[in-house]
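Lay summary

Proteins are chains of building blocks that fold into shapes. Our project writes down both the chain and a compact code for its shape. Here are two examples, one after the other.
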Amino acid sequence: MPQPLGGNQMPRFAGIATFMRLPGRSAAADLDVAVVGVPIDIGTSNRPGARFGPRGIRDESVLVRPYNMATRAAPFDSLRIDDIGDVATNPYNLADAVTRIEAFYDELLQHDVITVSMGGDHTMALPIMRAMRKRHGPLGLIHVDAHTDINDHMFGEAIAHGTPFRRAVEEDLLDTHRVAQIGVRGTGYAADDFDWSREQGFRVVQVEECWNRSLEPLMAEVRDKVGGGPVYVSFDIDALDPAFAPGTGTPEIGGLTAPQALEIIRGCRGLTLVGCELVEVAPIYDPTGATPLTAANLLFEMLCVLPGVQYSD
């Protein structure tokens, strides 16, 4: 059972930079959960920098300890979890990068692991879901984001960080009546920008539904919506208000709070999660390190709700 390296064994500012200072030496065949970095940002439409997301998250994850004191989850005592490194993405060619990501996850999923991925821009969701669909069939989806990412094209391109969920519907990757999009907001190009999602059967939760309230009741509704099959979680850090996570490429005001993000992830407990991702972390826009630190904590919370995790309730 690989374990994170404790702060009393090695100072937190020292040692090898893996997620939560896991050993980083395991083969996928020996794991239940593989933590993967996907350093890509050539699908980005605004500020680049998410290619440094996985490294930034690993750096800040040294502050995350292995026991969840709120939920009593002990993921590292329950599952074999390790950081297996990064996908070798192509920084010069987006189409080739997408092909490489899909091939990497095709190989990884042959070992029947759950994947927890660090991004990287949101383009990465499409090749990962393609690989997931081959392994698990059509997916339920919890998509937490400031944006719906359902553009048909961006500058004439069908694949970019704003298009993955339109392509996922067209390619039959999703069970469209088991999809929820949470936190979407901001300005648009037309009054009906969010309606395409609703026409597919998605539950679209605009951020105004979330303001000034606990999201535990919402997540009970979401579990009923997306349950009954395999579920993928795609969490864009820009779902959070820039006050909590300024280090991202396309920030939008009026977003979710950090406690609401915790409620959303903890509300996924009991679902058949087959993979999770945290994307669009661009550390260069946050010199305080708060954004990758928040991302690291949210990824740990994802580990805590995976199937098979034991709780000392």
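And here is the second example, written the same way.
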Amino acid sequence: MRTTTPRPTAPQTIPELPADLDLALRRLKLAAIRRTAPEVLLTAKIQRWTPEEVVRTLVETEIAARDASNIRNRLKAAAFPVAKTLESFDVATSSIKPKVFDYLSSLEWIRAQHNLAIIGPAGTGKSHTLIGLGIAAVHAGHKVRYFTAADLVETLYRGLADNTVGKTIEGLLRQDLIIVDEVGFAPLDDTGTQLLFRLVAGAYERRSLAIASHWPFEDWGRFLPEHTTAASILDRLLHHATIVVTDGDSYRMKHRTEAPTTT
């Protein structure tokens, strides 16, 4: 299998494709083949490739280009606020156990349509972990959508206002993973709690949810006003879930840039 296209050893002018072939590739939307075919064909002629080698190289080029395009599109649709990867997460200084981190990184819980809940104080790696897992999931071919809890509820409220909340929720449930960060940063009213319940209930055993909150579960009544609904949300969220509790000092505070003092 050829992973790169060898270049001719001697400088030669790369001929353009015949106009009819160029047009045919345009119609078939084979942009990568159209772009690389002239050089591949010249290289094949000089190095005496077999027809199978030529076809394989062109097809692999097109597949690689489409895979990269799909990843870019899924990353854009996911709406991550920043780019945080699992590789840049410092597991050694984190309170997340390496075995747990490895399991989460395997993404098996997404394939099993299980959930993830990360609970802990600010600055202990919750958002980094969620975003890193989301980006890894995109690269693995999954559809992902990131929200803060406030943005999610606002999105659902807009659907409620124009009578499309059902369609909005069904659209969200087309994702393989829905990430809800900063749960509990702002209290919800009864309507917001009911909308959140509809999403969690719709995702139950169908899609994976990954949430992060600084509130322990027993304190969720502080920002969810209706306790019966809060209990129902937690019941469905945690039934098939990995629960990760983080602790320690804030990473941001430890690595803050101190302003210079003046006298």
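What can we say about the second shape? Residues 91-253 form a domain with the Rossmann fold fold (CATH 3.40.50.300).
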